[in-house]
Amino acid sequence: MSDYEELTLEVSGVKTRVRKGGSGAPIVYWHGAGGGGRWHAHHALLAQHFTVYAPDHPGWSDSDSPEWMDTMLDYALHYDSLFRALNIERPTLVGHSLGGWMAATFAAIYPTRLSRLV
User: Fold this and answer.
1) How far is Cα 37 from Cα 22, in angstroms, rounded to an integer?
2) Tell me: the pLDDT tens digits for 93-115?
3) How far is 30 from 79, CA to CA, in rounded Å?
4) Once rounded to an integer, what is the mean pLDDT over residues 34-38?
5) Which of 40, 45, 62, 87 has its CA 20 to 30 A from that of 23?
6) End-to-end alpha carbon distance in the chain
7) Cα–Cα–Cα angle for 86, 105, 47, rounded to 5 degrees
8) Residues 23-33: pLDDT tens digits?
9) What are phi and psi of 32, to 5 degrees?
10) Among 106, 95, 8, 4, which residue's Cα sits nearest to residue 114?
């Protein structure tokens, strides 16, 4: 598997764990309800061609679970702040299952902040 690093960022008071690996254009991969907390084989494959950012959503794995975060809008706002903290501009956003719902919400609110939605 590809090498990666684990980052922990404090974003608006929410500790967020992000796994980052590879090089090239940025891809942000949002996991489904059961897929956080690891660097998966598909991350490693993507990292052969892109810089992959794989955060644990707030409330999953090693990220904080703030009481106030319970709607897709809350997650979209959080991820806008996370993108800014990581200096990620116009990534390809890949969402799986629950992550896909979050990604679609993010794209509807911030259509100019993405290059692609998958």
Assistant:
1) 18
2) 999 999 999 999 999 999 999 99
3) 10
4) 85
5) 62
6) 23
7) 45
8) 999 999 999 99
9) -80, -170
10) 106
d(CA 30, CA 9): 16
Q: Does residue 7 register a pLDDT over 60?
A: yes
Buried (b) or exposed (e) across 30-69, using 16+ Cβ within 10 A?
bbbeebbeebbeebbebbeebbbbbbbbbebeebeeeeeb
Tell me: the pLDDT tens digits for 41-66?
Answer: 999 999 999 999 999 999 888 898 88
**By the 8 A CB rule, do 99 and 23 touch?**
no
Q: Among 78, 69, 103, 98, which residue's Cα sits nearest to residue 18?
A: 78
Give how far the C-alpha of residue 44 lies from the chain's centroid of Cα atoms, to the nearest Å: 15
